[in-house]
Amino acid sequence: GAVVSQHPSRVICKSGTSVKIECRSLDFQATTMFWYRQFPKQSLMLMATSNEGSKATYEQGVEKDKFLINHASLTLSTLTVTSAHPEDSSFYICSAKGFLNTEAFFGQGTRLTVV
Amino acid sequence: TQLLEQSPQFLSIQEGENLTVYCNSSSVFSSLQWYRQEPGEGPVLLVTVVTGGEVKKLKRLTFQFGDARKDSSLHITAAQPGDTGLYLCAGGSTLGRLYFGRGTQLTVWP
Description:
Strand content of chain B: over 45%
Number of helices of chain B: 0
Order of helices and strands of chain B: EEEEEEEEEEE
Oligomer: heterodimer
Structural class of chain B: mainly beta
Number of strands of chain A: 11
Mean pLDDT of chain A: 91
Low-confidence stretches of chain B: none
Structural class of chain A: mainly beta
Mean pLDDT of chain B: 91
Radius of gyration of chain B: 13 Å
Largest sheet of chain B: 6 strands, mixed
Distance between the termini of chain B: 37 Å
Number of strands of chain B: 11
Radius of gyration of chain A: 13 Å
Largest interface: A-B, 26 and 23 residues
């Protein structure tokens, strides 16, 4: 399957700071990328969908000014958690889909801990 | 609102037993995918089914897509401890968005 790399895998930050998470498609062009959040022992909740060169579409209840998504190229999307608070601590996962692909492939996830 | 209802939520069985996980929805999906996720890692795609009534086999795993493309099942034969993990079904829309079920946490004891 296609390879999607997410970085960093773990990050600890202080409350009030911002954290950037990168998601790269290594061997295909990702026309669409998805960002998910997962709480312990729960399923994945879609936060937003981004198409290359366009503004991201956020799911209901997700603050777009807090979770900034950029998808400036066909191989890279970033999620920036701004002014992070402890309640933002979670497992964030990206997935990427090419134009002709039915499936989306997932990154390894990023464990964010805000202290 | 959960578009996909997955059951059971937890399943704990002995090695060698068979099991079935169900994924049901009132919505029609263009495709349905099954993933397996280990703790601290991203989900790994197991299979994609796109045709109503389709059956796919992956070694001891059998996946079925309902005729109306609203439901799916995953059957594991002779489960092994290595099958332990979180199994997720996801329905795909024509726009490529995936809607996940709550997942089934499977534990297989030796």
